[in-house]
Amino acid sequence: MAVSKNGLTVAAANDAIIESNGNLGSVIMASFSSQGPTDDLRIKPDITGNGVSLFSTGEEADDDYFSISGTSMATPNVSGTLLLIQEYAFKNLDTYLKAATLKGLVLHTADNIGSAGPDAISGWGLLNAKKAVEVLGERGGSTRVFENKLPQGITHSMEIMASGTEPLSVSISWTDLVGNENYIANSSTPALVNNLDLVVKKGDTNFYPWRLTSVDQNANNGPNQVDPFERVDIMAAEGLYTLFVSHSGNILLGQDYSLTVTGVEPKPVLGSLEFAEITSNSAKISSSIVWEGEGGVSSFGFIWSESQEDFDAQATEINLTNKAEFFKTLSLLKPNTTYYVKAFAENLDSKIYTNLGSIKTLASLAELSSVTASDVSSNSAVFSSKILSNGGVEVTSTGFLIGRSAGFVSSEGVEISGTLTGEDFTGSATNLLPNTTYFVRAFAVNSEGKSESAEFSFTTLASLAELSSVTASDISSSSAVFFSKILSNGGVEVTSTGFVIGRTAGFASSEGVEISGKLTGEDFTGAATNLLPNTTYFVRAFAVNSEGRSESAEFSFTTLKSLAKLSSVTTSDKSSNSAVFSSKILSNGGVEVTSTGFVIGRSAGFASSEGVEISGMLAGEDFKGSATNLLPNTTYFVRAFAVNSEGRSESAEISFTTLKSLAKLSSVTASDVSSNSGVFSSKILSNGGVEVTSTGFLIGRSAGFASSAGLEVSGTLTGEDFAGSATNLLPNTTYFVRAFAVNSEGRSESAEISFTTLKSLAKLSSVITSDISSNSAVFSSKILSNGGVEVTSTGFLIGRSAGFASSEGVEISGMLAGEDFTGSATNLIPNTTYFIRAFAVNSEGRSESAEISFKTPAALAVISNPEISNVTLTSALLTSNILNDWNAEVKEFGLILGGQENLNKENGTSFVSASQKTPFTIQVNELKPGTVYYVRSYIENAVGTNFSPVFSFQTKADQEKPALKDFSFDDELRIGIDSSLMINLRVTDNYKLKNIQIFYKGIRQKLELDNWEFTENLISEGVQAVDLRVEIPKRSFDELGMMHYIRVEDEFKNVFESTISYTYLHYPESAPYQVELNHIGPKVSDYRMIGTPLMSAESMENYFIQAFQKNDPAIWRVFGLKNQAIQSLKKEDLPEPGKGFWAIANKKAILRYVGTVSKVKHHNPVFIALEKGWNLLANPYPFMVNWEEVLAENEVKITSSLSRPVKFEGTYQFVDEIMPSQGFYIFSLEPVTIRIPFLKNNLSANGRIQDRPEEEGWELKLTLKNSKGEEQAWSSLGVNLGAKQGFDRFDMPLLPQLSSDFSIKILEDQDENFYYSRSIIQPKDTFDWVVELEKRDNDSDLLMSWEITGTLPDGHTIIYQI
């Protein structure tokens, strides 16, 4: 177990000396602690813990403790500490660390013991738990702790900015697979199965992890091939580093690993501040976030000011949001002005600024304020404007342009010179037309040209309105209608019109009567009333505008004649039979009145022919008449009349009443005489002209008895008849009776009569019912005879069955009025038949009337108010109850729901209860969220429908976006197999979905362009959840694939949009990506550079074996470039986008690549890391790449170090358009990483990249041929002014050698003994090269030839010495 790969082997040490600041002072290893390393030089032990004299449990008793030493004590010490670290992780990070993470963390943070780096005595050092948890606590700030998985054939990379204040340390830790058993003693074969490699790079410098090189030596100058924990320490780290995690050999299932980094810069780091697109009022400022630091950059942008001295106090801050677009265009700047700018960025740690930069805007045309006009008259105006900005240079002239139409051409306007005072200038226009709209623009001229202001319009002053002559129509005796027309409104709105009328020609306006006018368009009318008939009037029209009042010419007309007009009649000297009338002629109708009088009648509005006519006596305009023989206290109606040549007219009608008198009565008649009663009747022959207030009878026992001595019997008056009955009379007795009547004039009596009484029971009339309702009724009856004696009580008996016994009925008291009596029953039951009899009681007994029946009508049923509960987004529970159905059939009952407060069955939805049970409950669904609904209960029977009051409730509002519950698709589309992309999704909403669309387009399209294709709405409105399977056609893919996102909207306009997803083209074995090898030949010049745009798991060698059906170097060869040297490929050399290869073949074939195109995204295209020197690359995409677009995509500091691409087609050639699968060389002065853009039309430019000027010089090409004349090797040497010594863009790597039998080597001036295909040097007086020609096959002849290109300097020659 001590040598286990994945375990933690613990060494023991004495108690450490810890300094006051918590750092390790010193520690001494325990003498008994075992030492490593393993046979394969793995670092063992891994970690050291305190293992000397630890106080621990004993074995003698349950409470036995003692001090003990050993690695067996150091190990639990370390184990317990690791558990505490796990507890810290769980409490603070909400997760437990993986074993590899925990192991890596403590090895990373251990305090070194002895010399730098790990050793075979203490491992990585003394466990430091404090530092371990500090690394966890600071992760994301100055530390990083990740857990990741490395797939087969993939390299992970990460950029790290060093803090510069402490060492930068990077480590990886992984749990390795179980290895093969090895029983060989002292075997150095590594036990490691999955060999991960960690390297940290800065520029062309690689930093490697620690490893043991012997029992007592370590190093960090190369990869560690044996340990499952690797750590790189960079002591004086500054700037940006890139760490790479890769693997050697196969890791078929991938490998989980844990990464720990310390010494990270927590602050953000910004790139340089740059300026572009500077105009007179704007400038583009840009920077970049080189490093985001702790928690990522939360805010970033610029601050800028016009003041350098007081920059911080006056600066304006601009915050940006898109980190990929760290730029801002400043606008509204002053021309020809210097501004000062800083970029800033802020994260959780701090806020940092760049150094202060400055820009100066360009000069521009002057900027002017809008024109204002003053002193405007009908023919002139004064204009003024202001120079808002002189454009940064002096304004030499100003003025104004005036025209008659909006937007007039400047050359067509009239120019008016301006007078400049400071920044203000004025100008005057004369000879203008009155009440005319003009358009004016100010102008100013400076050295940049002439500028104009916005256009301004004004109108010259107006005048009084002009009117047409008046015309009159509809002339009557008392009225007329006038017309006129506004010929001109004087240029302003007419605010009022009308007419003025008088009785004399040319009357003063103030003396006339003014009549308002009604304006319609330009016409207006007015009407005059109360005119005198047959009279001449004079009229003028008038109109008022802001300039004053104008009048038309005067017009005259004469009114028509008419009937006379009379005043109302007045009455005087009224008596009971006469009256005097008077009236007045208000108007004679324009002609003479020939007669007057009055007409009198008894009814209002009587016809004149039915009235009595009374002649009038005329005195001037007044006339009178008298009426006699009138009835007393009687209302009469009177109208005056007058006659002229136009006819007869009458006044309004009045009424009057004659005086009153005593009433006159007929003789009394007696009837229904019984033993103790009698009924008397009489008639009012005349009421004396006033109301009779009471009637009755006087009864006495002697003829001619005095009225005061008689018995008075009240009379019941019916019309002019009245009756009375006498009771308590003595039976069989003679009585004397006189009728009497009383009015306001007194009491009168009739002639006297006599009668003799009888004896009997009272007699009653049948009962009469009235005012019958569902629960009440009124009954009446009449005492036909009191039986000659007094009736002592009356009433009614009511029962539920015909002929009910009187004792079983309910008795209702009667109210007697004379001989009539009434009673009322309440609390009756609706829709019920009742039986009723009247009764009366006198001294002779009780008598009852005949029985009648009646039925109460049915009543409206009664229902309770609705109760509302369980209200949700789309539903509610409604409850109500039938309170009373009154024993009548209920036709229907339920609830009405609607959106209006005045709710009824017509505007609401009825929910009829399906159950006859009460109370009843109705669940209403499919309501609209956030909506007010109104509800009321209703019940219907034969009588009608009864409603409860209206109540309201509101459903809950839907404010949540739709949810995308499931979204799945294949991120790789298999070309030739799949014809489309199938997308599966599940969408839900709180209420109802309205629209679901998928937007898609090719990956090479720009994100920001509005050219997305999209599906139609995938659903019908109203669903709440939907599962969809959507097919996106293959035609929507471009050479890389397709990007797509989903947009969902519900009925409340809540919108959800998914992030953009990508699907990439995958070429399977059934439909591979094919590249034809068309160029064949046996010569060095037949080599070609190739590549593939696919990420493939198959080696390049296997693709060639598959293409040529064999692995035969006589048929084909493939090479790569590594460390500036051509090398044969290994089986593990996999093709990948951007990686180039040398290839040659002696017959044609097709390479069939299987794999996926580069999985680029718009923020992450293909990146290619270039080494210093020559790099063998290939087009990483399945479409042409324009090198001009590549240069435009990368910063100048990168592209300036690059040569142009060079391809090989027999000779080296510069190339700008790199075709798919094309390989090429690029020379770089420094190690850089370049971006290869993939967007269509990424850069629209004309022309080609300019060639670097090749300075004058010459070149000697040496060619070695075999006996067949085939080129077998070649090289060249020469001079060029731009060349460096031994290693630059002129000295290209050797081509792959076809045969080891032939070679050309230029031995002089090489860089580190590396041989180039060309050796080009700077000029000097003497040029010496040593060329070695090697021939190892003595059976073939060798032919060398040479060719000079360029021009040798004067006086120079080439000397060949063999």
UniProtKB/TrEMBL annotation:
- Extract the InterPro entries matched here: ECM_Regulatory_Proteins (IPR050991), FN3_dom (IPR003961), FN3_sf (IPR036116), Galactose-bd-like_sf (IPR008979), Ig-like_fold (IPR013783), Peptidase_S8/S53_dom (IPR000209), Peptidase_S8/S53_dom_sf (IPR036852), Peptidase_S8_Ser-AS (IPR023828)
Keyword annotations from UniProtKB, A to Z: Hydrolase, Protease, Repeat, Serine protease
Q: Which SUPFAM superfamilies match?
A: Fibronectin type III (SSF49265), Galactose-binding domain-like (SSF49785), Subtilisin-like (SSF52743)
Give start and end of each Fibronectin type-III domain.
367-464, 466-563, 565-662, 664-761, 763-859, 862-958
* Residue intervals passing through the bilayer: none
| Domain of life the protein comes from | Eukaryota
Fetch the SMART domains from UniProt. Answer: FN3
CDD domains on file:
FN3 (cd00063)
- GO BP: proteolysis
A Pfam family cross-referenced in the UniProt record is: Peptidase_S8
Q: Record's family? A: Belongs to the peptidase S8 family.
Please state what the protein is called: Fibronectin type-III domain-containing protein
Organism of derivation: Daphnia sinensis
